[in-house]
Amino acid sequence: MRTAGYLRRFGVTGRGLVVTLPYLWLLLFFVVPFIIVLKISFSDIDLAIPPYKPLLEWVGKNSLAIKVNFNNYAFLFTDSLYINAFLNSIKVAFISTVLCLLVGYPMAYGIARAKPATRNVLLLLVILPFWTSLLLRVYAWIGLLKANGVINNILIWLGVIHEPLTMLYTPFAMYVGIVYSYLPFFILPLYANLEKMDWQLLEAAEDLGCRPWQAFYKITLPLSRNGVLAGSMLVFIPAVGEFVIPALLGGPNALMIGRVLWDEFFSNRAWPVASAVAILLLILLVPFMMWYQSVQARESAGAR
Amino acid sequence: MNYKSSYFILTCLGFGFAFLYIPILSMVVFSFNASKLVTVWDAANSPTLKWYHSLLNNEEILDAAWISLKVAVINASGSVILGTLAGFGLARFSQFRGRFTLNAMTTAPLVMPEVITGLSLLLLFVALEQLIGWPAGRGITTMTIGHMTFSMAYVTVIVNSRLATFDTALEEAAMDLGARPLKVFFVITLPIIFPAILSGWLLAFTLSWDDLVISSFTSGPGSSTLPMVVFSKVRLGVSPEINVLATITITVVTMMIVGVSLWMARMAKLDKAAA
Predict the structure, then answer these.
(1) CATH 3.30.300.30 fits B56-237, yes or no
(2) How far is Cα B157 from Cα B57, in angstroms, rounded to an integer?
């Protein structure tokens, strides 16, 4: 007891200790790394290990020179490849989010309105693919979409087409892959929101003469706004920086920023350029992340 | 309450689940195909277990699976400890310095694109090595640290939401009866959140086992994980052995998920019966 009091005098409490460990861990391995990325994005490429020049250099005996160069950023804005990759990533992520909304909303709604026993089974069926490797599930689409793949074989057998369709390595394949992989991320938060809905409101609206579609548009949709937003963020933000799906399904012309970053880093060993790409991507995504967090806060405040 | 669903909703559910499951089922079916072309069914010689045989004799894949297993187990155990502490702190301490930051730091990894997390972790490890000589080179240790950083965020969310649905009355009662906070945690809180901790462990294991991007950035020579080997194979085209690997993965995951759900449903029933 004495030691506890002693520690407390220095502000060390049990409570403090509980949160200190995860706090320090995330600070060191999640926050500090971004500062280093920022630093390296301002340094020169060097043919050395590691392949960048230090920012701080001793010039002569007593003077320390800081060499900050904006060349990497200037490079990103002058070469149209990078700007196109950024714009294309946003476009692809946005369209994929809309597609997830169109496919996922009716599914989440159907699950929320099913009988409790059925509901649990359906929910399990949504969660199950999420637990199976993303890489393997994306790989499955290669087998389905390629020239002598399952879909072409079936269509030819049915006589619908005579020549195989080119589907793999097209934007279409990439959209299919992204929607397929991220659909559970959209359905689960939306379901969690719809589950809390008071369906008697819908009955009341119908009793008062509302058509089912009108009732949906006027009641269900506005009330599920936070669920839709949370699901959309969980799809949109990671999809902007997605690497695996464009690399496997998108073909060589699929210009996505996550892939550009990967190639700069692994193929060109241009660490400073890759860092500058990461910083710009982060600046682009932080507003969405903050929006997601405020939606989450509102959602859990509403739950209590 | 009524449980009516229109034909429109039922159709959507049908197509939606077909969309989710046809690719998975196709891998299972074609894992028994004798043809090396994978998607062209060789009716004369199929079904066959020959690709199962060749997968289980593939040294490269088995070595990678062993590395993945080690990383995944250490990662899951570590992230459960860190994530439970963070989730407990966020759910039970309404005010403390750094609460906002901790909350932000445990939400951000959930949505952060993996290429950014991977790159930034690698640059940290390189900088640390230059500065203090640790970690010397990259491999299992650096990969595990990378995985723990994003896995613990998931565990935090799970533990936090489990605690949020339980009121503090039980814990308060124990404290009133004179139990020390540490004892209350181990005797009352821990059993309550045990299902969440178990789900957290399994999820952290799976996230690590499946991770490609963060592993690629933070691994070193000779420490390729299973997804890294699969990725390099898949880039060259479809391979029958990958279908087998997928089928084994799906079977294990399905048994695990169904088993845990049944167990939790039974626990919930017992809880209700006791109350």
Answers:
(1) no
(2) 40
Output the pLDDT for position A227: 92
What is the per-residue DSSP string for A33-83? Answer: HHHHHHHHHTSPB-SSSSSB--SEEEETTTEEEE----HHHHHHHHSHHHH
Q: What is the pTM of this model?
A: 0.88
Domain ranges, ordered by start, for chain B: 56-237
| Domain ranges (residues) in chain A | 71-303
State how far the Cα of B265 lies from the Cα of B248, in Å rounded to an integer.
Answer: 26
Tell the CATH topology of A71-303: MetI-like fold (1.10.3720)
Examine the predicted complex and report whether its ipTM is higher than 0.90. Answer: no
| A25, A131, A304: residue with CB nearest B253 | A131
Q: List CB contacts (< 8 A) between A278 and chain B.
A: 115-116, 119-120
Give CA–CA dist A36/B131, Å, rounded.
13
Which tens digit of pLDDT belongs to each residue from A95-153?
A: 999 999 999 999 999 999 888 888 988 998 998 888 888 899 999 999 899 888 888 88
Contacts of B126 in chain A (CB under 8 A): 50
Question: Is residue B253 a contact partner of residue A132, using CB atoms and an 8 Å limit?
Answer: yes
- Contact assignment for B83 to A22 by CB distance below 8 Å: yes
A234 to chain B, closest Cα gap in Å: 6
